[in-house]
Amino acid sequence: MKLHTRRCFLQTAAAGLAAGQSGLLGAFAAQRPSNEAGAKKVIVGAHPWVYAATQPKYDIYPILDQIFADMKYAGMEGIELMHTALRPGGAVERIAALSQKHGLPVIGTSFGGEMWDRRRHAEVLADAELVITRLAKLGGKTLGTSVGSARGVKTPEQLDAQAEVLRKIMAMCKSNGVVLNLHNHTYEVENGMHDLKGTLARVPNVRLGPDLNWLLRGGVDPVEFIRRYSGRIVFLHLRDQKSDGKWPEAMGEGSMDYAAIGKALREIGFSGPAVIELAHEGGFRPTRPLRESLKMSREYVRKTMGW
């Protein structure tokens, strides 16, 4: 897809973007009032899963132009990428140009692999090294990491393997100025949080980036989780859910108690970032453009949570 910038700009944009991204994020924080306690303000961004869900092989790279434009229109203050968008040659230059054009910083990226399977470790680590080094060039600071589902309750040996590779990825992150946070789906928190607790026992210094809706779907109260793990939570994924258990088109059209969630987050001094990740049920046909649902969601978070 043709970029709306010249080749010479692309060649220079990535070189200065790490400092530029920090400046963009800092500018957003500086322009917004602090909360009552004077704490650092929460930066609210978005994750592009809702776009990926309709793409071949969930590949957002061909439509990055649209995603950046839509998120900027919606009032987002940053974007959390999907790690697959960082794999193509020229990805750093292209994303740098889009970030600069739209004034939309790269907060970080999601990342995942079958970390419980030792046979996959070399592959996972090679992918992590590529993604983390490219993310750092873009000024991204967070790696929202999914450890992979074993399609059953993991054995102690599988949890050991998972922890082993996590520690190695955390070391890569540290050397690149990136912070790894554990992102959950349902499998990590079902069965009495067997998977997540197994990881925390083995990697006690790992940070958390919970997806609050997946917590709910996994049978975990988001408010209780926030209070229990307050010292570990450095990142959030936000999404709503209707009373029938299905996803609405936008945040604010469901029944999750984000007022109570916001209160709990203020109590623990959460300082972000927080990322809106919309998702739609299989076969759902949107009634409005995705950018409008993102805008509605952003306004709902501002109104309900004060960010």
Primary descriptors:
307 residues, alpha/beta, 10% strand
Walk me through this protein's architecture:
The chain is 45% helix and 10% strand. It has helices spanning 7-13, 17-31, 49-52, 64-73, 91-102, 121-137, 156-175, 190-202, 212-217, 222-228, 258-268, 290-305, and strands at 44-46, 79-82, 106-112, 142-146, 179-182, 207-208, 236-238, 274-276. The chain has a five-stranded parallel sheet with strand order 2-3-4-5-6, covered by helices on one side. Strands 1-8-7 form a three-stranded parallel sheet, with helices on one face. Strand 3 (106-112), helix 6 and strand 4 (142-146) form a beta-alpha-beta unit. The two termini are 35 Å apart. The relative contact order is 0.14.
Structure at a glance:
The protein is an alpha/beta fold. It is 45% helix and 10% strand.
Tell me the strand percentage band.
Answer: 5-15%
Per CATH, the architecture is: Alpha-Beta Barrel
CATH topology: TIM Barrel
- What order do the strands of the largest sheet run in, or round the barrel if closed? 2-3-4-5-6
Report, as a whole number of angstroms, the end-to-end distance: 35 Å
